[in-house]
Specification:
The complex is a heterodimer of chains A (about 110) and B (about 425).
Chain A (H helix, E strand, L loop, with lengths): L4 E5 L8 E4 L1 H4 L5 E5 L5 E5 L13 E3 L2 E3 L6 E3 L16 E7 L2 E5 L8
Antiparallel strand pairs in A: 1-9, 2-3, 3-4, 4-8, 5-6, 6-7, 8-9
Chain B lengths: L4 E5 L3 H12 L5 E5 L14 H4 L4 H4 L4 H6 L2 E4 L3 E5 L4 E4 L4 E3 L2 E4 L3 E3 L12 E2 L4 H10 L5 E5 L3 H12 L3 E6 L6 H4 L1 H13 L3 E4 L2 E5 L5 E5 L4 E4 L1 E4 L3 E3 L2 H5 L8 E3 L10 E3 L4 E3 L13 H15 L11 E6 L2 E7 L6 E7 L2 E8 L5 E7 L2 H12 L2 E2 L2 H4 L6 H7 L1 E2 L6
Classes of the chains: A mainly beta (about 110), B alpha/beta (about 425).
């Protein structure tokens, strides 16, 4: 059991894909993108690109990075670091826990940017 | 011997990226950005969200003042007036001499004027800087009649933005449709037709004269047609700003000539972005690239080269443009010799792909299809051959297609 938000089972998100958990569910006023990276692990970032309005869960996942589907900013899924222009602000990360093949999200409630 | 000081002239995306990348890559010497407009800011929103008022001046800044302090980058709001490669200095209009072991020119371009009577009249506006956008915004009221000459990226984006400000817009270009080399003939047609669908009058023709007036201005076309307007904007391309480089003795030909590592003919000076023009290793003078991503990419290459590091891998060129709420992206070369495959849905082109005879992809352009473009870019870069029938099928994601297809020339990853 976990006290995190149940996102689904590991089979629900294919490797290289992502799923958006809406603000109503995250409870922190922001949507969160949950990624199944190509290293096999799951990661979570704020869904909205730090550059302009765009949903990172609709982005291109490669390795342990996501590329924004609108202006091609890339973020590290592990650290949230903005890796290239046009993003200059890091994305906020959230903790993911996988227990018995079930994915749990722990939204960062600290309120400060990564 | 390590470099102790680098001066970057120009605070657009090329100049900013050079500075940011130099610090990211470990340069710990003195680093200065000189731009009369002060803190570096981004340009693409000037014809879009900034012009409509949806985005404010603060949001254009790449970084706030504090970031430059934190990274020990000095931003000087002044104009560079001369370069001194021999003594290693950049001279500013204030008279200040900045020591520079190397200088990077990121001066961009200046809008072209029409070589016709009235082409340089005061009423003829151009759009390149924040100040240009402010003046344009200030001159438009609901119901204003705006004439835009040039229906390329700037002209089309501005037409769209002015419509949201309830201006009446006439858009004039010599060709119909424009942007064929950029997005291919079919998508160019569809995109240009959007103007009329959004209440913009498009005219094909060239201008003979612009007559400035007290209350309205008159544009006379070659066939005698007259267009009366309160606001006149010309968007017919740019010329590279190269005077500083030329005066310093660097080779210049429609841009500062640089090698593949952005170094000019005088090794002390580098050039990036719109102001630079590459001569490739085999001696070919390439066309000058004027897109945002080239500025960022060339800034990154220059920073790596200045520090003796390897440049990032090259990829197919890419740009985006927005009009009437749709997001258009293109990658590679849609004008390359080959054939075009269209992906259509509900009678609309969603994507166009340019394929070579051997089945490899040369270019792609798409509307509101982010993942398609990102897949296409990788398909181009990795020389993957994909099935044209599946390319045309809107139900087949390119990402899936990419993984089931085989690479030709080079390895998949």
């Amino acid at each position: 059991m976990s006290n995190g938000i149940h996102v689904g089972s590991v089979d629900d998100i294919e490797e290289g894909e992502a799923e958006m958990v809406s603000a109503e569910v995250t409870g922190i006023g922001r949507d969160i993108a949950v990624f199944h990276a190509e290293d096999g692990n799951f990661y979570a970032l704020d869904d909205e690109c730090t550059h302009e309005t765009a949903s990172l869960s609709e982005g291109w996942v490669e390795g342990t990075e996501v590329e924004c589907p609108v202006h091609s900013a890339r973020f590290c899924l592990k650290s949230g670091e903005a890796l290239c222009m046009p993003a200059t602000i890091n994305a906020r990360t959230h903790r993911i826990e996988v227990i018995d093949d079930e994915i749990y999200l722990h939204p960062d409630t600290s309120g400060t940017a990564a | 011997m390590g470099l102790e000081s680098i001066v970057i002239i120009g605070g657009g995306p090329g100049g900013f990226t050079t500075a940011e990348q130099l610090r990211r890559r470990g340069f710990d010497g003195s680093l200065t950005v000189v731009d009369p407009e002060g803190l570096p800011y981004d340009r693409p929103p000037l014809s879009k969200d900034y012009l409509t008022g949806a985005k404010h001046a603060e949001a254009l800044l790449f970084q706030q003042a504090q970031w430059y302090q934190d990274h020990q980058i000095e931003v000087i709001a002044d104009r560079a007036v001369s370069l001194h490669p021999q003594t290693g200095a950049v001279e500013l209009a204030s008279g200040q001499q900045l020591p520079a072991d190397r200088a990077v020119l990121a001066t961009g371009g200046r809008p072209r004027r029409l070589p016709i009577p009235g082409g340089d009249a005061e009423c003829v506006q151009t759009l390149r800087t924040r100040q240009d956008a402010d003046s344009l915004r200030g001159s438009v009221r609901p119901g204003s009649r705006a004439a835009i000459i040039g229906a390329g990226l700037i002209g089309a984006e501005t037409a769209s933005s002015l419509r949201t400000l309830d201006a009446e817009v006439v858009l004039i270009d010599t060709v119909d449709p424009p942007l064929v080399p950029a997005v291919g003939a079919e998508l160019a047609r569809q995109l240009h037709d959007m103007h009329a669908q959004h209440g913009v009058q498009t005219i094909t023709g060239s201008c003979r004269e612009i007559g400035p007036g007290q209350t309205e201005h008159t544009i006379v076309l070659q066939d005698g047609t007259e267009v009366h307007a309160d606001v006149v904007l010309v968007g017919v391309g740019i010329t590279a700003v190269t005077e500083l480089a030329e005066a310093a003795g660097a080779e210049v030909a429609d841009g500062v000539i640089v090698d593949e590592r952005q170094r000019s003919s005088i090794g002390w000076l580098y050039a990036v972005g719109d102001a630079a023009r590459t001569r490739s290793a085999d001696g070919t003078l390439e066309r000058r690239a004027e897109h945002w991503e080239h500025a960022v990419q060339s800034g990154t290459i220059a920073a790596a080269a200045l520090l003796g590091q390897d440049p990032p891998p090259s990829t197919a060129p890419w740009f985006w443009t927005d009009r009437y709420g749709v997001h258009v992206e293109a990658v590679g070369d849609m004008a390359a010799e080959g054939s075009t495959v269209l992906r259509e849905q509900d009678g609309q082109i969603r994507a166009a792909f340019r394929l070579a005879g051997d089945g490899t992809m040369l270019g792609a352009a798409a509307v509101d299809a982010g993942l398609t473009v990102r897949a296409a870019r990788r398909i181009i870069d990795r020389r993957i051959v994909v099935d044209p029938v599946q390319l045309a099928d809107p139900d087949v994601p390119l990402k899936k297609l990419m993984k089931t297809s085989s690479p030709t020339g080079s390895p998949n990853r």
